[in-house]
Each structure stands twice: as structure tokens, then as C-alpha cells.
Amino acid sequence: MTTTYAVLSEGLEKSYGPVHALRGLDLAVPEGSVCGLLGPNGAGKTTAVRILTTLTAPTGGRALVAGHDVTRDPAAVRRAIGVTGQYASVDGDLTGRENLRLFARLAGLRGSAGRSRADALLERFGLGEAADRVAATWSGGMRRRLDLAAGLVTRPRVLFLDEPTTGLDPAAREHIWTAVRALSEDGTTVLLTTQYLEEADRLADDVVVVSEGRVLAGGTPARLKARIGSRAEVAVTAREELAGAAAVLDRLTGGRPVLDEERLTVGVTVLDPGISLPRIIRELDTAGVPVTDARLRPPTLDEVFLRLTRAHTATGTTGREQETAA
Amino acid sequence: MSTLLSDGGAVLTRQLHKARHAPALLVLTQTMPITMLLFFGYVFGSALAMPGAEYREFLVPGLLAATAANGLMTGMFTAAQDAHRGVMDRFRTLPMSRGAVPLGQTAADLLTTAVSMVPLMLVGLAMGWRIENGLPGALGALGVLLLFRFATAWVGTYLGLLSSSEEAAGQLGSATFILPMLSSAYLPTAGLPGWLRTVAEWNPISAVATAVRTLCGNAGARAGADAAWPAAHPVAGALLWSALLLAVFAPLATGRFARGGARERSS
């Protein structure tokens, strides 16, 4: 079985003088999927997007977008992509309709084709009413929708969303998410960078965690969570019973149980997916430890992210890096 | 080539829409040269050894040349604004011609300048300025002015793309008001100390101002026997200066736009 990749990068590097923003980034985004690029500030996410959208040239490695090399054939890449984000924005001095008509015309849709494309997008994103007001007067959520619409003027095969919902309220965020899901269902490949792990969890088929210009980990959100393991926590009736509960959990999981003498709980990481909550309770019961409460929950993507990036930083990589998106 | 013109046309339309949405700004840029003309003509004109009427005849072509040179400032503002507000990156991700944005912006600037030159000339005529050489002279003068405006707008676009921020472009742009002062636009150069006179006579704005005076048959058209080449051949000088600036800065600005302005300078 062969997978076609909408975005493929190998050993992508970018240096700004002595600063290394990317140090060999490998990405493979299958066609039609949604890939979430996660990473702390300065990890190189924006630099990666800028290279993949032909805005800046890499200093090493290579990248293919929709099958076209970003440095050798940027014009072909531009015909296949749409970009929405913190940097590629709309013109606040124009109305919404003027913005979309301008971008449609520049994308090669002449005359009535461009006008009807612009009008259709305004309707689709619920911007019809505000369409003839200058965009600078719009709310943040509406501007972001216009931004997304502008990215779709070209009917892109690959859509890049650079932090599409940063600074939006929950309702506006939900609006963008719904639109992105609909696009993905229509077969558009989406590469999104985000600070919000919930966003990646809700939208992305695959998540790639980037730190200091390299890929730390990748996979489905579920697989990444499995790597970190679930968290089991049991509550007992008295302080004397904590040690007994800890001993059972230690034997069961091989993890290092943590005792909380205030709340009378014992917590432990569970890596083995075969260990279920009933089994934990059964084992404690057999050992004669009375349990008042027990829970087993998968980690949030936030925990995964923190664990991965913290472990990475702790291994002592040298050199400070920063995103050059001043 | 056809994409360049079509895309350039789209960007030109955009600039005109912007102007339409900010009418106050448009009125300000149109009336500023008229205010300066009245101020220089009657305030400075009353204090000069030259008779006031004669000075005003000398001044009008100078102010037209200074207005043409303002393409530098406008070009810088426009380019820096786009570069630092993210619209430029949107343009650069579109499958459009690389030269279209600077071309559309400078062409739009040319259009609005052509419109603003008319009231400025009318006020000049009311102040006693005359076009002695008829319609050909007037059209020739307008052509020299607009070509120079187009050239300086490209220089401004390039500098605007290089600027580190909108504010920096604003500061530098405002500082360009000094350039016509170092030329024969407002005052004759004959009285200047030697080195400053050489600078002023080689200043392209001098060539443009003197070319307009020559084409319209005004006072101050004739240069002294020891004048520098552009001062002695003002029409050729003005045309050559404009051509030179265009030949150097149009490719530079287009290349800088394609590579992404100041943000990517280190790349």
C-alpha cells in the first residue's frame, strides 16, 4: 500500500545567522488528513509553515507540498495551497468583499468567477451581512473567519492554518473548528499549528510534537497518550491504609505510587492498557484495602506535551533557539 | 507579462478602494501641497529680495517638482505598512506575479498624483504663474513630473520594504521633506556656498523643477554659465534621472518583495 503525502519534509533546516530555528525537521502528512503541529514558543512551528508556504527559503533539507518542491517550483506550490494565520492576513483597510475579490482575482479567477467565489465564501462563513464594511471594524472572530475564507479562495488541496484560533472566544473558536472539519471531510489536507492542545485533540488525525527545531514525537493523539500512560488514583479511609494501597498498586503497575496524606489518596501511572479499573479495585479488595473512591483516566494532551517537552529539555540540548517571526 | 499587468491592475484597484475608504487622508495629501504653495509664495515671497510676483512664478514649478518627489515618502509608507501588517505575506503565498504588488502600488500612486497636480496647477495660475509655451509645454511639464513621481515611488517602495517597522518608515519618510530644500525647487541655487551648490544642482529635484520652468517658459529656467550638467540641460537631466532611478529601483523593489522584505533579510 502506498500513501500519498500532501506534505513531506526531510531534514529541513533553517538558520538565521547563528540561530537555528529548524535542525532537521521530518514531516509526512498523508493526503486528506489533518496534522497538528504542536510545540512550545520558539520550537520552529512558524518557521516550518513559512518554508512550506514558500514565504522563506530553507537553509538545508527539502520539502514537497502537493508533490512540488518548495524551493525548485514555488509557483506550483502556491497554486496548490491556502494559507491562514497570524502572518498571512487580510487587509483591514478594505471591506470583506473587496478583500476576497482581490485575492480571487490574484489567484487567477477573473471577472464574474472571482466575484461569485468571493460572495459564496462570504455566505458560507456567515459574513454576508458585514461584507461591505471595512474589515478593521470587524470583531476578532469575524476577521479570523474572513482570513480563513481568504485562504480558501484558491480551493487549495493543502491548507495551512497557523494558530487559527489564538485569542478567540470559545464560540468563535467552535465556529472555526466546524469549518476546518467540513474542509477535511471534503478531502482537503490541513496542517495546523496551535498552542491549544484541545484544538489538536479535537481536530487532528495526527499530532507532531516539535521542540527546538526537531520532531520529538508523532502519532495519533490516542497513541501519544498511551505512551505517557493513564493515571490511576485510589482513595482510602485512613492514613494507615495508604501503604497497603501503594504496595498493591506498585505490584500491579511497576510504577512508583505517590502518596497524598492530606487527601488520603495514592496515585500511579499505568502504562499497561490491560490494567482496567475493575482489576485495580479487585486487587485492592483481595488485599483487604478498603477503597472509597477510584478512578483511571487517560492523560490530557497537555500532560503528554509537558512530559515530552520537559523530558527533552532535561536531556540538556545546548543552545537557545527562537522563532524568527518578529 | 499579461499576468503582471492583470495582477498589477488588481493591486491598483485595491489601492483606490483604500483611498475611497479613507477620504480624509486623501483630502489631506491633496491639499498639503496647495497649503505649502500659498505659505511659501506669500510668506517667504514677501521677505525675499526677488519681487513677490516673480518669486511666485519661480516657486510654482518648484512645488510641483517637490510634490512629484513625495513619491518617495508615499512609497515608503505604503510598502512598509503592507510588509508589517501581514498582507504582503498573503500576496506572497498566492500564485501571482512577483512584480504586481509594487507595480500596482506605484501605478495607483501615479494616478492619484496626476489628479492632485491639476488643482495645484490651478492655484498656481491664480497666483500669477503662467504657462508661456501653450498646451505642448504644459503637457511636457506634466509628463516630466509624473515620470519623476513614478520613479521616486519605486525608490520609496524599495526603502519601505527594507524598513524594520512602520514607524521607522514613517520617520525616514517624513525626513525626505528636506530633499527639495537642497535643490532649486524653493530658492535659486546661485547664492549657495560652492559645495552645497554642487549638491543642489545635481539633486534630481532641481532638474525636474528647472525642466518645468523651461517647458513653461518661467523665470529661473536659465542656468549660469558655470552650472552643473543637469542644471544646464534640465529636461534631459530630469528624464535621465527618472530613467536611472527606475532602472535601478524597480528590479530591486521587485526582488525584495519576492524575497519577503525586512523580515527575511537575514535569509
UniProtKB/TrEMBL annotation, chain A:
Record SUPFAM superfamilies: P-loop containing nucleoside triphosphate hydrolases
Sorted UniProt keywords: Antibiotic resistance, ATP-binding, Cell membrane, Membrane, Nucleotide-binding, Translocase, Transport
UniProt cross-references to Gene3D superfamilies, sorted A to Z: P-loop containing nucleotide triphosphate hydrolases (3.40.50.300)
Localization, UniProt: Cell membrane
An MF annotation (GO) of this entry: ATP binding
Residue ranges of domain ABC transporter in the record: 7-237
Membrane-protein topology: Peripheral membrane protein
InterPro entries: AAA+_ATPase, ABC_transporter-like_ATP-bd, ABC_transporter_ATP-binding, DrrA, P-loop_NTPase
UniProt keyword Transport, yes or no: yes
Family as reported in the entry's similarity comment: Belongs to the ABC transporter superfamily. Drug exporter-1 (DrugE1) (TC 3.A.1.105) family.
Protein name as catalogued: Daunorubicin/doxorubicin resistance ABC transporter ATP-binding protein DrrA
Organism this protein belongs to: Streptomyces amritsarensis
From TrEMBL, chain B:
Bilayer-crossing regions: 24-46, 58-79, 100-126, 138-161, 168-187, 238-258
Residue ranges occupied by any ABC transmembrane type-2 domain in the UniProt entry: 24-260
Keywords (A to Z) from UniProt: Antibiotic resistance, Cell membrane, Membrane, Transmembrane, Transmembrane helix, Transport
Pfam families (UniProt xref): ABC2_membrane
Membrane topology summary: Multi-pass membrane protein
Subcellular location: Cell membrane; Membrane
InterPro entries noted in UniProt: ABC2_TM, ABC2_TM_bact-type, ABC_2_transport, Nod_factor_ABC_transporter
UniProt family annotation: Belongs to the ABC-2 integral membrane protein family.
Protein name: Transport permease protein
Source organism per UniProt: Streptomyces amritsarensis
